[in-house]
Design goal:
The chain is an alpha+beta fold. It is built from 16 helices and 21 strands. Helix 4 crosses helix 7 (193-227).
Length: 473
Amino acid sequence: MLEGLEVTEISFIELAKTSRIDAEFFNKIGIITEKKILSLPHYFLRTDEVVSGPFGSTLKSHSYLKSGIPFIRIENIRGGFIINQNEIVYISDEDNQLLLNSQLFVNDLVLSKVGNTIGYFARVDEEIKHCNISENNIGIKLKNYDVAQRHFILTYLNSKHAQILVLKRRSGNAQPKLNVSDLNKIPIPIYNNKLYDIVSSAILESKKLIDNAQKHYSHAEDILIKELGGVRFESRSDSDKVVTAVKTLKDSFEDRGRLDAEYYQPKYDKVVELIKSKPHKKLGELVYIKKSIEPGSDAYDTNGIPFIRVSDVSKFEISSPEIHLNLESFDVEGLQPKKNTILFSKDGSIGIAHKVEEDLRVITSSALLHLTVKDDEVLPDYLTLVLNSITTQMQAERDAGGSIIQHWRIDEIRNVLIPVLAKELQKEISEKVQESFRLRKQSKMLLEAAKKAVEIAIEQNEEEAIKYLENLH
């Protein structure tokens, strides 16, 4: 009667140890994994070492600052290991003092407790120093462990074994969630200091590579800014000063079709004037623009071809998506991004550009345009950096400003002004960008190797794990 079904038998005594009776919690792989870890010397995090972000906090977007105490949100920890500082916001020291229970320090950990980002553990690094976390996050305070063991805990929690144990404790359907108490039930295996030290070395070396990658990328940005006159612009309400701009009816309605005051702020005119003072072209003159599809949530699946949305894309990487589409329902060949395609977001978080390094077997949402460079007038890496630069971001802010959900129209995107620098400068910028991405890839590979070593220690022994990491050097 049950032939072909996966069935797990649980004793009443085991069932009584937990408040869960759902099949997801008692899945076979989860039970096998937990038994494996429990068969090893292990320990559990203490109750006071795991804290929630402030529930019901009054800290909303109007409390965010441009400097102060870093405030870690879900979007900052996607991918795990590293806190993404590109979208980081800050809170005042006064607000932080009200939330001291959730304050974290160097080598403490943070993870999301809601949604599809559950399971990503990121480290508070030396650059951040200390921070606080949003109500959707969980913090793990590791002050009672030495540095190497903290790095091992981080790596273990990102490994496949711990991920199985963490994810099986999710509850809820439409919006999965993780309770703070769930983290105290994850067994952590105990090993000798030699394994902790070699894993820690990999984590620290990975951080050095990321820092070096950022230096190369920042240098590329500096070259662009220098060629544009060394001017840095204010953006996103950087200035609270009241300004007045006088425009003719022809300027505002006949030529541009806009009558809202936000569009005509002097800071936007300043950007346009500066770009126009240099060799430049409209984006539509430099690239072919291709729209993708929006299949609708009814087509979402857990298997099939990966479906990339704006939330999965940053200027540095494409994250593994949670959503897939049925292969039989779509013309896959016509929708897959090819090498050197630039994915460019037009909805939600607008103006994110990411150049594809190789042909991808994925489908992107309609919010991501596919840009293909027409000829060698601009190099793809150079153009991608320009699209991510403040000069393009301010044009996006101007065009889409005032909307609750930002939408950048394709006809506006075609008219974005792109500075076209001399080819030798484009090559110099492109080389810096490529080196940055090479170092980021190397950093990611080192983190994956550290995870693999932890998994080898669990599945075989720590001697084999140490040998694996030592052979990488």
